[in-house]
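Q: Hi! First time doing this. I have a protein sequence and I read that you can turn it into a structure. Is that right? Here it is:
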Amino acid sequence: MTLAALATTALSTAGLAQSIDQFNIGVLGGENAQDRMTANQCLADYASEALGGVQVNIFTPADYNGVIQGLLGGTIDMAWLGASAYAAVYTQDETAVEPILVKTNLDGSFSYHSIGFARADSGITSLEDMQGKVFGFGDPNSTSGYLIPSVEIPQITGATMEDGDYFAEVVFTGGHEQTIVAVANGDVDAGVTWADGLGDWEDGYNSGALRRASDAGIVDMNDLVEIWRSKPIPEGPIVLRSALPDDVKATMTELVANLHETDQDCAYGVAAGETAGFEPIGHDAYETIIAVRLAEIGG
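A: Yes, that's right. Below is the predicted 3D structure, encoded as structure tokens:
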């Protein structure tokens, strides 16, 4: 049975096609654009079928802000946001998007971690070893790639994240994949990225940027070592633009909710690794992250 058949709504798919002329999916930065396109093309194909044949486009802006502004400006209809990116949208326009679903881990949880890591041959095994060294972070709008580390790491070091205070330099690489490559190449001494923290380090854990980079052959996890792990972070929501027709929102919500059951390979690509599927989520799950973002970097 196709996802179009599973996505039951009050109107036929022909009616859906008449209510919109295209549907745009935004994919956050963090890896190269072609890999993001490839991982999400199956979702775009299913969406086009479920929506009655409308054109479905995948947008892969260079940074997180490209997706944020697309949602705010109405040029992107759906995206999987990190919690901080969702907070960025919400604090600029509370009515712009609606959280609908969240990716769950194999143990049923919907949390992940910011993971600090370094080269295994660097001699760096902890944040204490990073004093006076260069630390790489992905994107200012990334939850795991900057927001949470900027709160939790100073609690350990007793210093700010300003250049020269504890770390010699704090640099933004542009995304999770870029951070992984920068560490592997020795361009920075350590970096942070995201992972569910489940499964084996050698695989890049079960899901996350390390798993995706390992799967792609970008890095051999045996060449890296974990040096820090954050407290659990709530997984970011899949959101839909609030102004979309209700029938379109219902169809896309059911399509993604059924994706793991219908096509596990597609779900693996969309979820950046192993997942138990996608479950309903609401705004309340992100109120703490919104408060942290407002307190730390404004909104």
